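Hi R.,

Here's the chain you asked about this morning:
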Amino acid sequence: MNAKKKPDVTLVTKPALKEAAPPPPARVKIDRQPERPYRKGCAREAWWIRFNKFEGKPLADLEESCQKDPPSLPTKGKSAGVAEQFSGWLNFFKTEMGLVSTPLKK
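And the predicted structure, written out as tokens:
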């Protein structure tokens, strides 16, 4: 009898995909200072000082700092004593004033 021999089968697998390294954290980048200094004691000044302290550091560190210890708290109205949103100040300094070029959080 003539028995056919089965060919040796070798499974070829694709090499495991390397997981992409996570992107570096967004950093605070101050592009320029305001044309005129902000009025002493106002919320803009307090937030701007905090942004300057964190220049070159991760955006998450700045946000955490602002949540733990807000630079300023409103004193009048419905939101008296309630911390303002960090994202609002980031947006203000980035889009309205063009002072910061840090990516906005999504």
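The CA atoms of residues 75 and 81 lie 6 Å apart.

Let me know if you need anything else.
M.
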